[in-house]
Fold each of these.
Amino acid sequence: MDDKSVKLSGSFKGNTAPKSFNKNPIKGTKFTIAISSAKGGVGKSTFAMNFALALKSLNCKVGILDADIYGPSLPKMFSINEKPKSEDGKSMKPINQYGIQCMSIGFLVDEETPMIWRGPMVTSAIKTFTQKVLWNDLDFIIVDMPPGTGDTQLTFAQEIKVDGVIIVSTPQEIALLDVKRGIKMFDKLKVPILGLIDNMSFFQPEDGKKYNIFGEGGVEKTAKKFNKKFLGQIPIDIDLRISADSGKPLVEKTPDHKVSKIFTDIEKTIKGSFL
Amino acid sequence: MDDKSVKLSGSFKGNTAPKSFNKNPIKGTKFTIAISSAKGGVGKSTFAMNFALALKSLNCKVGILDADIYGPSLPKMFSINEKPKSEDGKSMKPINQYGIQCMSIGFLVDEETPMIWRGPMVTSAIKTFTQKVLWNDLDFIIVDMPPGTGDTQLTFAQEIKVDGVIIVSTPQEIALLDVKRGIKMFDKLKVPILGLIDNMSFFQPEDGKKYNIFGEGGVEKTAKKFNKKFLGQIPIDIDLRISADSGKPLVEKTPDHKVSKIFTDIEKTIKGSFL
């Protein structure tokens, strides 16, 4: 009997090939920046929220689109407990909080209700958020992407003019593997990558020593390998986590915090490449 | 003009309602245990791999099905670099490593290739792994689930007899929100929940102090609230991360490590409820 190695069949492979699409900007917005990671739980949402607030503090008009249908974080992180209003029953007004226009699937359902949805339903929700929300004269819309390389990523890459992606990762090797897959996906789908962030870089307890809990240097190395910009390190910081859990992100709550200042510095780089 | 609150339309809601399905066990296996978290990056895969190895050390025959199509971890965590063999061109043999039968999408593609797939492709891959893999006389098959409450979770819940789910979370509130959604999903889909694990509970550096980096007690509280079993705490441990990154999980590499012993204790509880 002949033992053969198994590979993906042609029909599977065919579906991963890129096609051309008409890409439109999200109505009411100038630039769309997606925050992605491919891997979940690396602090992507905490980064996205603080990133948006830091952009606002540089006098930009900013919106946040929480595109994580299965695990929306925006309602909790921004203490939003109201439902969006509609004047015509078709479109929705974003909710204003901390001077930022916000939209999330979490505004439409109870916070503990799971969205037990197959892919096409997710795609349809994403289309609603990009086409039916009355974003008002935004310089930047920040899209908090879900983990993975599936329906949401494909819908954005194929149908929306995404001006840049920031990829967030912890330095752990197993997370970086997902990041590499993410980079290859965005390159393949021709979405420009603005740079990589090394999140949860180290923890510095009261003894003053730095502990590289998740490893060291891996994100910068990955950026170099793929010829992408390295945007900086954000340490593990208990204040950052507490503020996210409390519904008022650190950049808004304590703008002078050393970690808030890291965000503002990153922001200046990013803003400078657009405006 | 009349401002109305927006809710999910009926057609969206209809799709979240449970239906009845014929559920079959995975061929060649006695019990299927899924490791889930709804939230990514909480250490679910590290837990799943060490969990499987601890079960093996209790003289069970164990397999691991890596069901995370977008972010497979098994090839890296178990140092597997070979492709599965097929004798008839239809079925696949699992790969044996550390005495465990293994299958992952990562065995079929290069480790950095992203699976840029929409939902139906994911479902089809999951069906291949549950129907076309020659699992051989296993007591337990451990399924490492992806984050979310989407296609993979639905496919398992509707088509496969899952004997129990273990839910892994960090104590961070924003992670617990996803966990609550996960619990509600499995309850709705009538998949029994074996219990909850509090992962990355605390970090204890050389100064001996305990730092609750991600918060404290939230997982146990959530277990109580939903009337589920609390299975225990696993600390943040640099050895645990290094061993996962190095391709030989801690329970296999250092069975006497204090963290390995936590796994063996959890295992005894779980094994006892089945065999």
Note: Chain A has ten helices and ten strands.
Amino acid sequence: MTAIRSAHDLSPGLSFDLGTFVLPRAEVLDFARRYDPQPFHLDDDAARASIFGRLVASGLHTYSATVGHLIRSGLLAEINLGGGGCELSWPAPLPPDEPVRMTLTVEALRHSRSRPEMAVATLRYVVATERNGTVVLDARATHFLRR
Amino acid sequence: MTAIRSAHDLSPGLSFDLGTFVLPRAEVLDFARRYDPQPFHLDDDAARASIFGRLVASGLHTYSATVGHLIRSGLLAEINLGGGGCELSWPAPLPPDEPVRMTLTVEALRHSRSRPEMAVATLRYVVATERNGTVVLDARATHFLRR
């Protein structure tokens, strides 16, 4: 993906299709063991008895893999200086090996009051299944960007 | 930690000291390679030149490790059914090997409208350094809990 050169090249409403990725089952289990060791993320039988009805990725994993996908796309490689916060929701859980597509949309952009070389952007990440468009992550993240 | 038996045992304002944890440097690098491969999370020289001034953990890692610490504490092991979303902020970055303490506070609690067997709780996670109380994660998470 072509890297954006400056926050000046972004404007509210601009949207990027970042393509697809999956969370392989082995990685779902590995992530859950490390960071979210709850039965419904680790064991098929326990997951069937849970509100999810089957084994699903930790929402932390869905979120982390989404950011990993964004960073690897290279889109923000020349301008991303760091992040300040995020509002996350998981409207539906993500099962292993289910292809999802990420869309990034610029929701807001302003100059930094304290650092004139920086802009502050609100970027929305929407991740939905390729199968039927079920949204599995909807996030609004604050990014500090090079102007 | 003694597990809470029912959402009925929680009430707004109740707070739990969940003790300390650290993000070891090797784990900081491993997490960043997988989920947030940006130079300021991977390379000391690049990090010194960044707005952070030194290598710091990915905020995703701080958040994931916090949830991992909460789950491993066992506090919610008998009642946590899943999560619906989270508002995250990282007021300061977390360097590797810096001990932090997690405090969990019940901010709100209501019955689920759609599922009478469930309660919906807003739980606040505050993670601060032991050294001087710098807050490195402040999150409000929605948890579905067994009543």
Note: Residues 7 and 147 of chain A are 5 Å apart (CA to CA).
